[in-house]
Structure formats: structure tokens, C-alpha cells
Amino acid sequence: MKESILAVRKAVDELDLDGVTGLVRACLDEGASPEEIFQDGITAGLEIVGRKFEEGEYFLADLIMAGEVVKEAMPVLKERMSETGNPGRGKVILATVAGDIHEIGKNIVGMILSANGYEVIDLGVDVPADRIVGAARSSGAGLIGLSALLTTMVDSIRGVVDACSAAGIRDRVRIVIGGACTSRGLCEEMGADAYGETAIDALRIFNGYTARP
User: Fold this and answer.
1) Pick from 60, 57, 72: which is nearest to 20 by CA?
2) Is the domain of 78 the same as that of 96?
3) What domain range includes position 47?
4) Helix 104-115 crosses helix 60-82 at what angle (to 10 degrees)?
5) How far from chain centre, in Å, is Cα 6?
6) What pairing do the DSSP bridges indicate for beta strands 118-122 and 90-96?
7) What is the DSSP string of 130-146?
8) pLDDT tens over the chain, length 213 residues
9) Residue 97 sits in the same domain as residue 145
10) Backbone phi and psi for residue 135, each to the nearest 5 degrees, phi listed first
11) Is residue 44 within 8 Å of residue 66, measured between CB atoms?
12) Among 44, 70, 115, 127, which residue has the fewest nearby CB atoms (within 10 Å)?
């Protein structure tokens, strides 16, 4: 792995708001792809931050700062990804499920999808099922991405699936889930269509649904 990507990982881990943009640019200048930087630099750095939070080394303020570090890096990566993006891929609704207020992972997915030609409708956090269904109806979006980090909130995923069925739109939408507490097994249990472990997985899954013959 390139030392420059490891430097990005370290910048996220150490909450280096001032240095992260320059380090991301250095990665790109060395030929690293935005996807590599996301996966091995930013995402891996966030995983370290998450572990430190769970172990009591980092606190809520540190999690918020890690999110700010990622936001600082996003414009540089989005600019580069847009150069090779595929226009008109379709509309995607993103939301963190009801009862959960985590959004860093969702925001990264949204940025990657947007840079690759998707029209992203980000409903934010703690979003009830009826609002998600309403957005799918009004926009005509056929793709829904749900984020859940808290195990106590996984039933909200089933709530969205059931609400789509009750509204008569389940057969035309694909529901993809992701987040720390999700898994392929949970995807099947909740009646969703696919599970993405990483933001790059999410892009691959959505591309599969929108692939043209």
C-alpha cells in the first residue's frame, strides 16, 4: 500500500483537519484512484476512530471532528471522480433509519454516488419510513439506501420494507442496507435486496441495478 494512502489514514485517525486535503492531493498526484483513497485511507481511518471511541480513548467530540476531517477531503475526491463519472445513472434515496443519527458513512456513499452520475436525494438522519416512501413516490426513485449503525434500530429497516409494500411500490424499488450493525444475514431477515459492507460496495451494487443492456 502506498505510503501516501497510509498518511491519509493517519490524518483521519489523528483528526488532522488542516493536513488531510494536502495528503489526499498527494495520493492523487501519485496515481492512486479515489476509490483506493476512500477504502484504504478514509474508511480505514474511520474504522480506527470508531474502535478508539468504543474503547473510551475517543469521545463524541472526536467522532464529530473525524466527520469534519472527511468532509474536508470530499471536494478534492469528488472533483476527480466526476471526471470519469457516468451521467444519468438514476435517482437514489439515502437515509439513516428512524432512531439513528449517524451519518458519516451515508454521506460518503452519497458523495461517491453523486460523483458517479447518480442523482442523490439525501433525507438525512432519523428518517421515518413514511417519509422515505413519500420521497420514493414523488421522485420516482427506484433505489433506496438505508444506513443503520445501532443494533437497536434494525427493525426500522423492516419498517421501510413493509411501508414500501403497503404503498404498492415494493416491486419497483431496490432497498440496499449498510452500516456497522448490518450484514447479509440481516438483509435477508429484514427483506431488503442487498447489503453493502463499504461505500465502494454500495456503488457496485447500485451500478448493477442500473446497468444498461
Assistant:
1) 72
2) no
3) 3-82
4) 0
5) 21
6) parallel
7) HHHHHHHHHH---EEEE
8) 689 999 999 999 999 999 999 999 999 999 998 888 988 998 888 888 878 887 899 987 888 888 889 888 888 887 777 665 555 678 999 999 999 988 888 988 887 787 677 899 999 999 999 999 999 999 999 999 999 988 889 999 999 999 999 999 999 999 999 998 999 999 999 999 999 988 778 988 998 998 744
9) yes
10) -65, -40
11) no
12) 44
Sign, CA dihedral 213-112-38-199, equals: negative
Name every residue whose Cβ is closer than 8 Å to that of residue 164 and which is 6 or more positions away in sequence.
Answer: 133, 136, 144, 170, 173, 175
**Strand, helix or coil for residue 68:** helix
Within 10 A of 112 (CB to CB), how many other CB atoms are there?
25
Within 10 angstroms of residue 38's Cβ, the number of other Cβ atoms is 26
CATH of the domain at 69: 1.10.1240.10
Helix axes 44-54, 3-13, angle to 10 degrees: 30
Beta strands across the sheet bearing 194-195: 118-122, 90-96, 143-147, 174-178, 194-195
C-alpha cell at 130: 413514511
